Amino acid sequence: MSPTRQDAWSQDEDLLLAEVVLRHIREGGTQLQAFEEVGKQLTRTSAACGFRWNSYVRKQYKTGIELAKKQRKELKKQDVLIEETNQNELLVVETIQPKASEEQVSKVTFPTVIHFLENLHKQAEASSGFEEERKKSVEKIKELEKKTYYLAAENERLSKNLKAIEEDYRSLIEIMERARKMVVLQDEDRQQKVKFQMDKNGNLERVEK
Fold first, then answer.
1. What phi, psi does 49 have (nearest 5°)?
2. Is 7 left (phi over 0), alpha (psi -120 to 50) or beta?
3. Is the pLDDT of residue 103 over 70?
4. Regarding beta strands 204-208 and 194-198, do their DSSP bridges make them parallel or antiparallel, or are they unpaired?
5. According to the model, what pLDDT value does residue 159 have?
6. DSSP the chain
7. What sign does the dihedral 139-143-148-149 (CA atoms) show?
8. Helices 110-193, 11-26: inter-axial angle, 10-degree rounding
9. How wide is the angle at C-alpha 76 spanned by C-alphas 74 and 80, nearest 5°?
10. Cα separations (Å) of 84 from 87, 97, 130, 131?
11. Ramachandran assignment for 177, one of left (phi > 0), alpha (psi -120 to 50 degrees), beta (any other)
12. How confident is the model over 35-72, as pLDDT tens digits?
């Protein structure tokens, strides 16, 4: 049976869903593959993950989605450039290095083979070191991308909160302004209702209208 869960999504689960979907977008995968991957990790169905993404999480990561799409385009350009470079290098090597004749092959000696293998070993070690550096760089880039996506979502959330606060502030100002006008009108009414008259002793006294 497929795993099903009815409980609400936590913030960590939403973050995992966003990271996996954005990674698939960046690497040229599909959202369905991302939903299946998240579903296995969270013991949820891929349909539930897809519904959660489209109904809520996607709206929180609009900036991250655009960034992932741009990175996907850049990666495609890099892949094409690397492939063209490799083809050009192969063409150059084939052009510069002529095919060995049978006479040259027959002159290959044991020391020559040893020297060739030593050079090949050095090249392999250098290539291995380069590969390790590349892996570290890729991991660092992924970590920075995660932080970028999180900060982008946090920025969108704070912007929405700021907008709500500004609207509340304007509403409060309007209420205070209406209250002030009501007080002024009441004071004017009181002033209009008050009059003075002279008593028997010739003194002015206040009389309500």
1. -65, -40
2. beta
3. no
4. antiparallel
5. 77
6. ------SPPPHHHHHHHHHHHHHHHHTT--HHHHHHHHHHHHT--HHHHHHHIIIIIHHHTHHHHHHHHHHHHHHHHHHHHHHHHHHHHHHHHHHHSPPPPHHHHHT--HHHHHHHHHHHHHHHHHHHHHHHHHHHHHHHHHHHHHHHHHHHHHHHHHHHHHHHHHHHHHHHHHHHHHHHHHHHHHHHHHHHHEEEEE-TTS-EEEEE-
7. positive
8. 130
9. 115
10. 5, 20, 20, 20
11. alpha
12. 999 999 999 999 999 999 999 999 999 898 999 888 88
CB 24 within 8 A of CB 34: yes
Q: What is the pTM of this model?
A: 0.43
Residue type present at position 30: T
Nearest to 193 by CA among 175, 208, 182, 179: 208
**Would you state the structure tokens that stand for residue 45, as one six-digit string?**
């169905």
For the chain, the C-alpha Rg in angstroms (whole number) is: 38
**Which two three-digit tokens encode residue 61?**
């990561």
Output the 3-class SS for 40-94.
Answer: HHHCCCHHHHHHHHHHHHHHHCHHHHHHHHHHHHHHHHHHHHHHHHHHHHHHHHH
For 132, other C-beta atoms within 10 Å of its C-beta total 10
pLDDT in tens, 173-196: 888 888 787 777 776 666 565 565
Angle at 149 between CA 146 and CA 153, to 5 degrees: 140
